[in-house]
What we know:
- It is a single chain.
- By secondary structure, this protein is an all-alpha fold.
- The chain has helices spanning about 10-45, 45-50, 65-75, 75-110, 115-125, 135-140, 150-155, 160-170, 175-185, 190-200, 200-215, 220-225, 235-240, 250-270, 270-280.
- The protein contains 15 helices and no strands.
- Helix 4 packs across helix 8 (about 160-170).
- The N and C termini lie far apart (about 50 Å).
Amino acid sequence: MKKQKRRKHYSVGAMIWIFIKYASLIFFSFVAVIPIVSCVTTAFKTEAEYQSTNVMTLPESWFNFSNFIEAFQRANMGRAFLNSVIVMVCVLAGSVIIGTQLAYVLNRFQFPGNGLIRNLFLFASLLPGVAMQVTVYQIMCDLHFVNHLYGYIIMMMGTDVISIYIFIQYMENIPVSLDESAIIDGASYFKIYWKIMLPLLKPAIVTACILKGVGVYNEYYAANLYLNKKELKTMAISLYTFTGPLGNQYNLICAGVIISLLPALIVFVLCQKQIYSGITAGAVKG
Length: 286
């Protein structure tokens, strides 16, 4: 006898819930895609074409790259990209060294004030960054760090609380017996950190670098506040070139946005396996 396939029978309530679920998914996907589509179509339009059409109207020519060339030259995006790369590399290197060392001390050593320091980091993460900008700006001025790339790097190198907790949680899964074996063999605490802990923290470092790197590359408020010289502009504030009191050139802004996204997109496409594996292995375990 041939086996007959059983058909699933859904109640009216279940069918309504399925419809609402998939309709909401389609709706929010549509909402997420609309700004990207609008940005791409606007980037290929001329000024006259942008003024006479709506944002969703397709451009007359998809081979009009004059906006990209003009945006790149007028905003000096080559220099801005170089500044962003310098800042991001230095900040990530410094943050990883500081964060992993601090997490190593807090996780491996028990001393009076250990719990207090962890609670203070948690308390600091609850404070909005804007609320502390008056004090931070005064400190930056007193140290003559304003309008200097190294001053901005030092400020952004401030230890990320989320990264510290990622490192601490990952270290808790590394057995202490590794440290004890290394100490018996005559290794110092710094050598244990450098030769054992740091290599084992690679997945967590990848996760922390992704979170911190995206934030540093896209940072606008602090960069616009502390880097006022034209040659110190980063990618995020270079697009401010096309805004003014008489109006904004949105076709050039959209072209600049796409240019600024291309490096991150290329890095993601080339390193997506390492990124996915790092995020998975560096996830905080409960």
